[in-house]
Amino acid sequence: MAHTNSQRKPVPFEHVKIEDAFWAPRMQANRQRGLEAVYQQLAETGRLDAYALDWAPGSDGLQPHVFWDSDVAKWVEGACYSLINHPDKRLLEKVEIVVGKILSAQGEDGYLNPHFTVVAPGQRWTNLRDKHELYCAGHMIEAAIAHHRATGERRFLDGMLRYADLIHRVFGPKKGQKRGYPGHEELELALIKLYRHTWEREYLDLAAYFIEERGQSPYYFDTEARARDEDPADYWAKTHAYTQSHRPVREQTTVVGHAVRAMYLYAGMADLAAETRDASLLEALQRLWVDLTAHKLYLTGGIGPSRENEGFREAYDLPNREAYAETCAAIGLVFWAQRMLQLDLDSTYADVMERALYNGLLSGVSFSGDRFFYENPLASEGNHHRQKFFTCSCCPPNINRFLPTLGGYLYSVGPKEINVHLYVHSKAKIELEDGALTIIQQTDYPWDGIVCLRFEMRVSRTFTLKLRKPSWCLRGRVYLNGRDVSAEGDVERGYFALTREWQPGDQLRLQWAMPAGLVYPHPRICADIGKAALMRGPLVYCLEAADQEVPLDQIFLPGNGTFDSEFRPDVLEGLVVVSGQATRVDSNDWGEVLYRQEPPRFESVPFRAIPYYAWDNREAGAMRVWLPLVPEAGRSQL
Ligand code: FUB
Ligand code: ZN
């Protein structure tokens, strides 16, 4: 049953200090190398110079691309969020220079987009379907909010308020306005963020307009195409499902089209439902969630298998080597999942959020913090590597802006309720209605499933603590001050809830058993038939050629094997390695025949698996997440 509860709010990342050995190094690498590397690329590729507006046909410089703005904006947003918890004078100086460049290119009327200003003047707002102006505007608004949060300075925010006001004048249902909406969703969630930042109702109304107008008939993108003298039937993507505008949002039942677009739309819809308490919008989101998670989600939390539309295919069509699984799409899924949690507290959202975070999102960045995957396949022959940048380079600055905000995904609070969604060694200041308290999490998660939680507060407080019981955990126990209270709390939709008068110094110990084990795919996923993958806790494991004695193609996993887990400080930056005995199919006695009546021989070989996020951080080599299980013929010989 749909219900909304906009009373539940995430604890902002400003209040959460992550001090663990897992995420903190990734966040540090982003600060120390990732932001700098992306900045260099923005400079080298002409993205920053574009704001000089000196490009003209025939000029030497690079022609400003229609969505370059979004890369710059995401970098500014990431740098600003990083500055909030980690002040850095040099980074701040760079931010101010970039912000100055951006603002210098803003028109008198508030318009901002170097492409339309110098490359295609006169074509402003003529092709919302393909040209990304509103998407870029959304990213600029988000960057300006981040800048204001980090510096307290208003110049960028004021500039983007002018831009938002212009958009508000141009688009809408009134006479003389364009009844359009973003071809690449993003502005919707940015406007709701702007509303929450300024409490100016017009931004919420504008976001609501864009969401409600989407997919209404007559299709705006067709009307707009005709106005350009184009036949809408010639649309390169062939279907408005590509932009999730094939029908009004409440009538959408399956997750379709471009994956990043879809995630940003659903995140915006969830924000809108939280503000308006619109149960019908939540119902639509719940249906879409089920379609995604029951049919279209990779084990790694990656989404959007198809290169053709950078997005979704039919249910269960999840190829491994060809998986597109764009890093931005995994980030978008985390955005959506976190928003669903605030509306509809259910651990399915946090489980998927965790799956994407620790696997398909984190794989998007190298240990060094300055190399990025755009695509995150689940199998490789050793020829897929992280890169500094891409021609279409949305993913690197998306990583830049996501990592500094990670602390904002751990908790949310409601009236007399604290929800713990993720387990990360950290310290968080939590504001309840009757005052603040500090929660300290001590844990080696994700290497270990023991989590100790402690409250720092001066007086006793009554509230409900809801602890997510991870879906991967088959045996969990909860101890309060040394006493087993596992049977005392209620498990409500995957959260273990304890309501009591908490005393200063109360200690909770959670034991989420975390053995390594096999997971099996739905039998309709053709790409994975007869295969299994290894998981330990939230981490999906993979086999990389560098760790094996034999080629990956010869390795079969035992269906009934046991696996060892060991923390190895010497492997990469230190991680838990899962190892065991696998089976190798032997081809040495085959000679020059292709087929024979005698089955092949099998032998036992050791294997070693590392977490998927960590692959391609050593010498190039093949990689597999899903491995074939030992066939019957092989089992009888072992
Ligand atoms: O179109 C803007 C961004 O570039 C999308 O979100 C990505 O999928 C990439 O196409
Ligand atoms: Zn991307």
| Arithmetic mean pLDDT | 96
How much is the radius of gyration in Å?
A: 25 Å
SS content category = alpha+beta
**Hetero ligands:** beta-L-arabinofuranose, zinc ion
In this structure, how is the largest beta sheet organized?
A: 10 strands, antiparallel
What fraction strand?
Answer: 15-25%
How far apart, in Å, are the first and last alpha carbons? 52 Å
Question: What is the number of E strands?
Answer: 23
Low-confidence stretches: none
Detailed description of the structure:
This protein is α+β, with helices and mostly antiparallel strands. 34% of the residues lie in helices and 19% in strands. It is built from 16 helices and 23 strands. The chain has helices spanning 23-44, 68-85, 89-104, 114-119, 128-131, 133-151, 155-170, 187-198, 201-213, 220-227, 259-276, 279-295, 327-343, 347-361, 395-402, 632-637, and strands at residues 9-10, 16-18, 379-380, 411-414, 417-420, 426-432, 435-443, 450-456, 461-468, 476-480, 483-484, 490-492, 495-502, 507-512, 516-519, 531-536, 539-544, 555-556, 564-568, 575-586, 601-611, 623-624, 627-628. The strands form 3 sheets. Strands 3, 15, 16, 17, 18, 19, 20, 21, 22 and 23 form a 10-stranded antiparallel beta sheet that branches. Strand 10 and strand 11 form a beta hairpin. Helix 6 (133-151) packs parallel to helix 8 (187-198) and helix 8 (187-198) packs antiparallel against helix 9 (201-213). The radius of gyration is 25 Å and the shape is globular. The chain starts with 8 loop residues before the first strand and ends with a helix. The model has no long low-confidence stretch (mean pLDDT 96). Bound molecules: beta-L-arabinofuranose and zinc ion. Zinc ion is lined by residues 326-328, 374, 394-395, 398. Zinc ion binds next to helix 13 and helix 15.
